[in-house]
Write a structure and sequence with these properties.
By secondary structure, the protein is mostly helical. The chain has twelve helices and six strands. Helix 5 runs antiparallel to helix 7.
Length: about 230
């Protein structure tokens, strides 16, 4: 149980590590081109606290400051249907490999240009109730959950708790055309076979506790408002 949950948290934000090698071999993006292409993204990802209402209610993820490789990996997963979300599937489906690389470069650089960098060590100690479950995750995500060993791994510190929780829970969902994630590694962690049926391995309470702790850590992830969205008319 404990070992499984350690693996679960370490993989939680990545979603589709099966496409990791593709992300590593992806085109080198151009942040300047990506800025122009990001117009399709700003309506959700450039509004602080913006909350999606379909297919589930949660704050859209902070992507400024996320690693470029991880962003490409995520978009590839939506494009292939490995991540099920109607809006993101439609957007990703319209993108070329170059578009994905350019957008990823833009959002990675946007995070570096705004705000202060995450501290090198944890600003908030691991809570006793979660210590055993979270400590091993620093080997992949860094001692502050914001400096992973490779940018194909996600930064988790400071991400919205409701989004992290929804992400983990999505791997337990089958048969829903709008919600779910099909990555085999993640599904093997959150689901167990019992009497011929698959059941969640972890309670919703456990998943919420993990998500809540990670969301309160200072990190490099940000929502950077688009200036023109705030002009007076």
């Amino acid at each position: 149980m404990k070992k499984a949950l350690l693996t679960l948290i370490a993989l939680a934000g990545a979603g589709t590590f099966s496409t990791l090698s593709q992300a590593q071999d992806a085109k080198t993006g151009d942040a300047a081109r990506g800025k122009g292409k990001a117009q399709m993204c700003i309506g959700c990802h450039s509004i602080v606290g913006y909350q999606a209402s379909f297919p589930e209610v949660y704050k859209v993820p902070k992507i400024a400051g996320q690693g470029a490789k991880y962003i490409v990996t995520s978009l590839q997963a939506y494009q292939k249907g490995e991540r099920r979300h109607p809006s993101m599937r439609a957007i990703a489906g319209s993108l070329t490999d170059e578009d994905m690389a350019d957008l990823a470069a833009f959002y990675e650089q946007q995070g570096k240009a705004e705000g202060t960098a995450a501290p090198e060590q944890l600003a908030t100690p691991l809570p006793d109730a979660l210590k055993d479950r979270l400590l091993a995750c620093t080997a992949c995500h860094g001692p502050n959950f914001s400096k992973p060993i490779d940018t194909a791994y996600p930064r988790l510190a400071g991400q919205h708790a409701d989004y992290l929780y929804a992400t983990l829970r999505a791997y337990t969902i089958d048969g829903n055309p709008h919600v779910g994630r099909a990555n085999a590694v993640m599904r093997s962690q959150v689901l167990q076979e019992s009497e011929g049926k698959k059941k969640p391995t972890f309670s919703n309470t456990e998943l919420k506790q993990v998500a809540a702790y990670l969301s309160k850590l200072p990190g490099d992830l940000k929502t950077v408002p688009e200036p023109r969205l705030h002009k007076q008319h």
